[in-house]
Structure formats: structure tokens, C-alpha cells
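Many introductory courses stop at the sequence. We go one step further.
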Amino acid sequence: MEEDRFGPLPRGLNHIGLTVPDIDKASRFLRDGLGAKWCYDGLTANDPPREGGDVERQLGLPEGAKVVRQRLMRIGNGPNIEMFEVVTDKAAEPLGLADRGWNHICVYCDDIESALRRIVAAGAEPLSELHGNSRHEDTPGNVSVYVRPPWGGLIELQSIPNGNYYPDGSEADAWLPSRKDK
């Protein structure tokens, strides 16, 4: 376990948070489009909503907002997706790539053409055709494409079959999901 002067360093990325207008529709999209699997519901429609001053403070919600459903799903052997369905009259549109803040998730695909067909059939809109990746990901056979899911935002599909390359002084190799879930 790696440590610094404060103690053990974080192990790695656990989940990515996603707020959606309808958790069931979003779950179907993630299942049909990316093969996501349900882990658990942290808050069901039968539970009282998470709301009030403490919840607003803890989660950074606007006044009067309430979390009515929460679900954890997993895509392959990567990080989990934690979805929230929030009722509020102050919701903003999702960020785009030019906006500051977290702006997309990337899903690694061994067969990106079938992954693109699958996610489009599930309701995503591709922003372009398949294209090459940027420097350090531009090895032979690399390809990626951004798609917009039904609720907005961005998902990148990416394949780097011949791996990344690194500049002198690189401190770590980029993490890629392994081929088998252990």
C-alpha cells in the first residue's frame, strides 16, 4: 500500500455520480447500451425521499431539492455508476466538453463498432464518426467516439488495442480495465 505523510493513499476510483430524470429509463439505457448490471438501490420509490437542510448541505443540493431514488450499477470491471433521481425546479443542463467541471465518462471497448451499434440502438446519438485518439493514445488501431445519452451529457467509447505510450518522466501507466472480471 502506497503512503505519504498523511497515511495510505486512496486505492482508486470507486464510482461516478450521475443525475438522471428517470432512473428506470437510464438503467435500461445503461444495460442495453453498455451491458451495465444492477448492484443495488440505495433509495427506492417506496422509501421516503432524502431531503431537508442537512441533506442539502451534505450533497450540495439547492434548497427544496429532494433525492427520490438512488441506484448503483456497474459496467464491466470498471468503476460503478451511482445514479440519482432528484426532484427540483433548479436543475441545469448537463455539462458539455467546453464547460468547466466533470464532463464525460469513457467506456473501454474491445469491439468499438459493435459497442457503437449497441449504444445507438439503446437511444444514444453519436456526435461524429469513429475517429483517432489524441497523443499517447494514438497507437495503431486506436479509435473513439462521443455519444450523447438520452438525458444529455457525454459518454466516450474508446479502444486502444495496442496500448498507450508515455513521455519520459511519466509517473504511472494509465489504468485500463482487464479483460476478465475477477
